[in-house]
Amino acid sequence: MSAVLWPLVALPLGVGAVLAVTEPRYDRRIPAVAATAALATLGLAIAAAVTRPAVSVPLFAGMDAGLAVDGLSAVMVVTVAAVTTAVLAFAVGEFGPDEDRGRFFGLMLVFSGAMLVTVTATTLPLLLMAWEVMGASSWALIGYGWRRPGKAAAADVAFLTTRTADLGMYVAAGAALAGGVATLRLDRLAQATSPWLHVITVGIVLAALGKSAQLPFSFWLSRAMEGPSPVSALLHSATMVAAGAYLLLRLEPLLAATAWAGPLVAWFGAVTALALGVVAVAQTDLKQLLAASTSAQIGFIVLAAGSHGVAGGTTQLVAHAATKSGLFLAAGAWLTALGTKRLGALRGAARTYPLVGGAFTVGALTLAGLPPLSLWAAKDEVLAAARAEGTGLYVVGLAAAAVAAVYSLKALWYVTRPLPPGPASGYDTERRGIRRTARTTPLPLLALTFAAAVLGVLALPGPASWLRSLLGAGGEPSPEAWEFALSAGVALAVAGLVPWWASRPAPVPRTVVRWARNWLFLERTARLTVVRPVLALARALAVFDDRVIDGAVRQTARGGLAAARLARRLDDGGVDAAVRAVASGARSLGRAARRPQTGLLHQYYAQAAAGFAVLVLIILSVR
Amino acid sequence: MLSVVTFLPLLVCAVLLLLPRTLPDRAYLWIWTGTAAADLALVVALWAGFDTGEGPRYEERVRWIPSAGVGYHVGVDGLSLPLVALTCLLFLAVAVFSLRERRRVRAYVCLFLFLQTVCVGLFVALDLILFFVYFDLSIVAMFFVIAGWGHGERARAAALKFFLYTFTGSLALLLGFIGLYLAADPHTFDIVDLTRANPLAGRGTYAGLVLLAIGVGLAVKTPTVPFHTWLPPAHTDAPATGSAILAGVLLKMGTYGFVRIAMPLLPGSWRHYALVIVVVGAVSVVYGALVALAQTDFKRMIAYTSVNHMGYVVLAVGAAGTLAGTDAQARSLAVTGAVTQMVSHGLITGALFLLTGVLYDRGRTYAMDAYSGLAAHTPRFAAVTAVAAFAALGIPGFSGFIAEFQILTGSLASQTIATAVALTGIVITAALFLTALRRVFLGTPRLPDTMPAGGVADLRGTEAWPTVILLAVALVIGVAPRWLLDVIEPAGRALTGLVAR
Predict the structure, then answer these.
(1) Is the predicted pLDDT of residue A30 greater than 90, yes or no?
(2) Which chain B residue has the Cα nearest residue A23?
(3) Which of A183, A193, A612, B316 can bridge B407 by disulfide, Cβ–Cβ 3.0-4.6 Å?
(4) Using CA atoms, how far apart are residues A466 and A460, in angstroms rounded to an integer?
């Protein structure tokens, strides 16, 4: 049944590419075409998940471009296609006729198509191709509103940060070839010979951490918020940031092949979950809060992958994708309606727009990890895997779960407050709100919210064992009953405290707040330690190039000219002067020789006599 | 057949010169376009009938100067056929782009027709002297293109610098060729015979000196650091079409020389000095990218990225000469990547230079800070340039990735550190292209003062078609590269075998 797989990836990529270059005058039909294509892709994804096709074509010498749907890919393709469909259906009503909808919808389809290739690729070259195309289309989507200052720069930051991390994957590809994995198949990477095995692992982990906005790369996700809300909804849930987490889940055997990789990755995930959770708490902007929470929540998946809990990580990934895309759509709906995403200005927004508010409430409660919603159960799966690896990881993870409850409920607290008097004074900080939600808002929002609420069944004993057999992760630890109770207790306790805390200043030093609010100054650090030195080096080298290297060339040319001038002087004053001297000497000799020729006979006699006398003298002296 | 492909443009050039001068300019331009299209069609036919067995195909061998061991010997294999096709495609693109040219059209068309014969001739030549003659004639023709149709007085200075610099390089090349000739028994300049004979095997210093002469000659043309400083002024002051041919075809003569002459004819010294070549390549990659990053002139920036892109080729051919710690697959991958990179760079940078011509035509300046938000006025121009920029920074889906992935993957095993250093070039080129796009096309719209009043026109048909076609071919190679790699790979394998002997 490989007939499903090529269309599955070709449909969004092809239709997206065509839509992206469609002339604006055909704009009216584009949203419908895009949504239909997304729906068809979802159908193909489900078919692929059922039939498990695999295809492969030669790409480079000895390396194929392979696509296949196994258990993990089956879950991923359906998640990606479903979220894409919901987000595009939502976006149909988000764009006015004066906006370039072809570019937006086309790029969104290319973006999700690249993610579909990423999660089905069986070889590293193809994975890398999709991985980078996804990065490039994220650039174009984040910079969608390029006329406004800062948007394009934000897109550059996001793309360059993730591409820097992507270098790890280029290294991994070369190292795999060097390590004896000539086919570059993903399922063979763990069999590479040492020391190349370690190089591969470092490269893959680096690329995954960058894409998933884990520490220390998290800052690009903050800048990615400059994109339109549907972009955030897709980029933060089932694509892009999910790609790094997926890669670690996919290559869990690689992480297990070395002693250090698993714990390292797990700790990166755990620390990100905690630190970016704190960052989220400190945000005053709803989308920034959600962005930081994405890093934190993806941190749980990374923690799971490092702790060899593929099933838990997958559950978390799927549940988070549904939850976060729904939350971003709600934030986007408010942004469209009220023109703001500031938490302070959004007081009471949930009461003004009850449907969006209801969806947001369910999403926020899910994100907070409250029972019986999905992320509560998913997180316990992850924490069970972490506990098997070490108590330290478990404790940090549990703390991160508590922080998750804080930021989720903080956001919820703001939007469910009673409307302040004169709420409109805080609106329209970003753009002019239309004071209503689009007709296309409710359906996708409710669908995603429903999924977010109920996907927790995947952690129930029955479905959980089904998922484990699907993923081939039979032996992974399951959470004990007390673990469920503990995490539920933590979440509920925090939930009880947040309303009391929310109206008071945070019980931490101001520096902590400042650091957290500024995303730990990660971007500034990157600028200071990487960007500035590179730019300074570039400028210095440009001067060096002009002055020294080209200067040497110019000096050589000048030297040639000087040598030529010297030669000319030598020629004129030396060689030619000598020739002239010879000539003038000959001329004066000639002149001298002419003088005796007087024509007077007596003088000739005198000359002959003198000559004869000289001759006699010579003969006498010789004898 | 190859001679027809080679000399068809020259023949048309001769006919045009015989025609009365009263012929309208448009006629010349259309005849040129038709000739270029016919030549490309012939090459497509050659490609269709090409079989990838060992040795050159479509060989022709005629006695020329037998007393000096010089013959007219031509043929194509997997290394040269893609470059011949690239040459014909680029000349067709340039011909279409030139349809609006109004300055001394007769001479312009004849010059480019002559140049096409020279370029195709070089890639099919299988005799060192024949190669050298074309190598030098290309410099002569390009000198007149830059000096005659470039940007004013500066162009004449740049053309002179270009000519003298590359001509000096070609003399080094000739010296090396004579070194090869003298070492062979019987004396010959024939590349196929010399490859078979491997005359300098075990000739230590002498072979090293011959490689040095040939290497420097080719390095100037490629160009690699530190022999690259003729390139930026030549590009900046050349007309767009001249830049496209200079970058797209003439630079390839240097890198092609490595795979056609230096590697198979001097395998022992190539292996011995592989590390030097690798270092030169890696330095060119990073240095070219960094200097490009600091440029404020759009065209000069792209000129420096050529140093970067050609650096990957040099890195790959150097790595292909390193036997330790690697296998034949990796080395063959690197060589295949190198040839793919030559084709890819020709397509993408050719398109980029044509686009800079559009920028200059509209705003009369290449200075990036003179523009802002140009996409608001010229959306199509901005979109095509953005696609070309992403293709140039090696985004998958375009040929650049296919080339660079093979080069880097194939080189990492044997030259780990140099390749790791060269990898950073990927991010630097991304940064510089994104910065350029942002400065010129995005943000608040602002036009330079030099812009003529009455608005700014978007891409015209004669500007859009050539660039879009070039990028479309790069896209096809990027998505489905097998048709190209099937031709290159056997030749690449054969070459790695020759180097390893």
Answers:
(1) no
(2) B380
(3) B316
(4) 10
H or E stretch at A590: helix A576-594
A576 and A505 part of one domain: no
CA distances (Å), B70 to each of A286, A429, B63, B349, in order?
Answer: 77, 78, 8, 35
pLDDT at A623: 78
What percent of chain A clears pLDDT 70, i.e. is strictly above it? 99
CB pairs A-B closer than 8 Å:
142
Q: Nearest-CA residue of chain A relative to B164? A: A557
Task: Tell me which chain B residues have a C-beta less than 8 angstroms from the C-beta of A118.
Answer: none
Among B225, B339, B377, B427, the strongest candidate for a mutation testing the A interface, having the largest count of A CBs within 10 A, is B427
Tokens linked to A554:
């110019």
Q: What is the tally of structural domains in chain A?
A: 2
Residues A404 and B439: their CA atoms lie apart, in Å, by: 40
B contact residues 58-97, partner A, Cβ 8 Å cutoff: none
Q: Are residues A512 and A533 in the same domain?
A: no
Put simply, the chain A residues between 520 and 539 with a CB less than 8 A from any chain B CB are: 534-535, 537-539
> Which residues of chain A neighbour B325 with C-beta distances below 8 Å?
178
What DSSP character marks residue A531?
Answer: I
Q: Give the C-alpha separation, A294 to A182, whole Å.
A: 36
CB atoms within 10 A of CB B328: 14
* Residue A130 contacts B, CB cutoff 8 Å: yes
**Predicted pLDDT at A347:** 86
B420 chain-A contacts, CB cut-off 8 A? 171
Same domain for A305 and A428 = yes
Which of A123, A181, A545, A561 to probe by mutation at the B interface, max B CB count within 10 Å? A545
**Which of A60, A160, A535 minimises the CB distance to B434?**
A160
Prediction pTM value: 0.92
- Position B200 confidence tier, pLDDT thresholds 50, 70, 90: confident
Residues of chain B in contact with residue A132, where contact means CB-CB under 8 angstroms, are 395-396, 401
Per the CB < 8 A criterion, the answer to whether A43 and A31 are in contact is: no
Range of the domain at B230: 2-500
| A490, A536: one domain | no
Does A1 have pLDDT greater than 60?
A: no
Query: Are A505 and A393 found together in one domain?
Result: yes
User: Residues 128 to 167 of B: which have CB under 8 A from any A CB?
Assistant: 161, 164-165
Q: How many domains, chain B? A: 1
Determine contact: B323 vs chain A, CB below 8 A.
Answer: no
| pLDDT value of residue A84 | 95
Same domain flag for A367 and A330: yes
Give CA–CA dist A23/A21, Å, rounded.
6
DSSP letter string over A300-311?
Answer: HHHHHHHTT-HH
The answer as to whether A80 is a domain residue is no
In tens, the pLDDT along A213-259 reads 998 999 999 999 888 889 998 998 889 999 999 999 999 999 999 99
Q: Which of B225, B294, B482 sits opposite A538 (nearest CB)?
A: B294
Residues A513 and A537 placed together within one structural domain of the fold: no
A550 falls within a domain: yes
Backbone φ and ψ of A194, nearest 5°: -75, 145
Which residues of A fall within a CB distance of 8 Å from B415? none
Which domain, by its residues, includes A472? 259-517
The verdict on A507 and A415 lying in the same domain is yes
The residue of chain B nearest to residue A100, with distances taken between CA atoms, is B379
Query: Can you give A170-216 as a three-state secondary structure string?
Result: HHHHHHHHHCCCCCCEHHHHHHCCCCHHHHHHHHHHHHHHHHCCCCC
In whole numbers, what is the pLDDT of chain B averaged over residues?
93
What's the mean pLDDT in B336-342?
A: 96
Reported as a single tens digit per residue, the pLDDT across A379-415 is: 988 999 999 988 999 999 999 999 999 999 989 988 8
Q: Give B460-473 pLDDT, tens digit per residue.
A: 989 999 999 999 99
